[in-house]
């Protein structure tokens, strides 16, 4: 057996698949709409931990990321860079700690700029990582191409080695060096892609499955093709960064950049079920739930969708939970 392969086998053999560590990131400075910072609290308050414990999971809540913004120099067309830099640095360190504790990391956002910290921490801890970015948007802009200057539209460009030369020096971000190849990233659910992002996708041959592809191939084949592209040998540690706006607004209306024509909740659950079956999922981000958007029913629908997605990623089966050994041999009248 090759030394590199032995290292990977040891890495996954040592990891427990029933242990989860939760991080809250009440952060909204990567975009301009108030309310998304409340995402972690409202998801927890809806009973997330109890729902996960029903699955037989060992759940530890590591609390929220609390940071102090650093004084940084200005960078043209990047809003709140000091806040982004400080928050994601601490988040990266926390992700590394949870992975060292042999737990799968569940990060509750907050806006999608937090992906900078979660993926950086995952790559630093596990080295060989493949990322499934489930989103209506590609988040591939730089400060030179973004129309808004919102950093939540830039994390993939910040994380990937192939795009590192497209950036100026970013004060406060010296801790973060791109270590992820764009070949290890696949998109599912795209339907709002800027012309520059389209150019980057084509230039680098990025695995990008938009809603047109989901309709053509079906969600099962789409997720299978995405995994084959980014992890053909089935050895990488998997990271799913899930923006709730990948769902159609009819399924998840309480989000800041909703785009019609998205994934159904059923399709999103199937994505997560398939990822769970790989036994290599080590980090999940759920981002962009904004309880300030929409009425009470809208918020309820969106939070329920987020929890269903998390449950599917962590082992809930629509076929029913597996029963303990020995029970299948017991007569049915025992349960009356």
TrEMBL record:
The keyword Ribonucleoprotein appears for this protein: no
Pathway: Nitrogen metabolism; urea cycle; L-ornithine and urea from L-arginine: step 1/1
Pfam families: Arginase
A GO cellular component entry from the record: cytosol
Positions of Mn(2+) binding: 112, 135, 137, 139, 243, 245
Keywords: Arginine metabolism, Hydrolase, Manganese, Metal-binding, Urea cycle
GO molecular function (one): arginase activity
Catalytic activity: L-arginine + H2O = urea + L-ornithine
A biological-process GO annotation: arginine metabolic process
Enzyme Commission number(s) of this protein: 3.5.3.1
Cofactor note as given: Binds 2 manganese ions per subunit.
The keyword Hydrolase appears for this protein: yes
Cofactors that this protein relies on: Mn(2+)
First-tier enzyme category under EC: hydrolase
Record-stated family: Belongs to the arginase family.
Protein's name in the database: Arginase
Organism: Vespula pensylvanica (Western yellow jacket)
